[in-house]
Amino acid sequence: MDATPNLIIKNCIPVGDGFDGKSQKDIRINDGVIAEISDEISAEEGENVFDAKGAFVSGGWMDMHVHFREPGFEHKETIETGCRSAAFGGFTEVACMPNTKPATHTRDVVEFIKKKAEKEAVDVHPIGCVTKERAGKSIAEMSDMKAGGAVAFSDDGDPVYNSQVMRVALEYSSMLGVPIINHEEDLKLSRPGHMNEGVVSTRLGLEGTPGIAEETMIARDILLAGFTGGHIHVAHISTRKAVDLVRIAKEEGVNVTTEVCTHHFDLTDEEIDKRHFDTNVKMHPPLRTQDDVDAMIEGLEDGTIDVICTDHAPHAIEEKEVEFIYAPNGITGLDTAWSITNMRLLKPGKLTLEQILDKLVTNPRNILNLSVPMVKEGEKANLTIFNTDEEWVYSENEVRSKSKNSPYLGESLTGRAVAIYNRNRFIENKLRA
Prior knowledge:
- This protein is of the alpha/beta class.
- The chain folds into two domains: 7-57 and 377-428, Urease, subunit C, domain 1 (Roll); 61-367, Metal-dependent hydrolases (TIM Barrel).
- Helices cover 30% and strands 21% of the residues.
- It contains 13 helices and 17 strands.
- Strands 1, 2, 3, 4, 5, 15, 16 and 17 form an eight-stranded mixed sheet that branches.
- α2 packs parallel to α3 and α4 crosses α7 (212-228).
- The longest helix has 17 residues, at 212-228.
């Protein structure tokens, strides 16, 4: 990928401190640094020019919960194809979960991931395992992994089920100044559920996973975080009661943060019936009820939910094209995240653009102790250029991931990330259709 150290972004609307979010500006980038922001900038020799045509520009977005599958499951996704999908979705940074093979439980695997991502325009931050082999029995080499570049610890895909192990993990992570991200699931309550337990699962005759399987584990982790002083980050929250638990814990001063996936504030368990058991609406936590969807939006509105993420989870076509009960959980999400956020949160006036960008730009990096990019002269250029009104169809031709397990295939969407700039590279997202 060719470097683009010198670029002028014409006719863009900067969003952030010092800008009204309405006025068009030009931005000059020299040697990867924002050199000038003004009403009109004339290109000089050797400068590339991109006409943003009135699109917004913000600090680069971050998804702190993705699965890039490498090493070990390259038939689903690779770091290269995952970064390609992230860039198309407008993300300049991601944090990737450790359910790889080998699991990301030692420093050499952390460093392998970082090395593989060096040539990409997207920054990739590995999340290390809490326990060795993600087996839940003994603490992994957390300090060594952090020294190698791990930004958090999680056994995602499985919960840290043993309470004593979680206590020790929180104590260790507190010393290291990084969060524990837990997949909140009481396995004795949840399995072998294939969707949300409720009216729809009863109607369809499918075994369901009740919301309490998530809520009891969140309650345990909140208590342990309060006891140890550690930072617990609740992954992919999905039920109203779970949001209530986090809200109360925050009010009481517990060091707890949380994230919500775009599909959990958009789709409900009714989709499984409507789509005739389409496995691309099977994920974990499962799609919940409309009341739970409403609670996700309320939690985003009042700040209980800190981060918008995707839980981007690619699977090969032969893995998903099976009977519903045999299909693996997970969908891709990077390509469509902004469109869903735009249509469900911004357009209806649920959140302002500034509130949304806090959850895409600022909060995930603050949680992971990473520097927050700004649209400001003298700052390193780490930018996302996006619009809110462009209508487009997410066809298979537009998929940038290696896998195509998305519930949004074939749908008309509104709003698109048109380009990113990061690591001295400019990527314009041209539609292929």
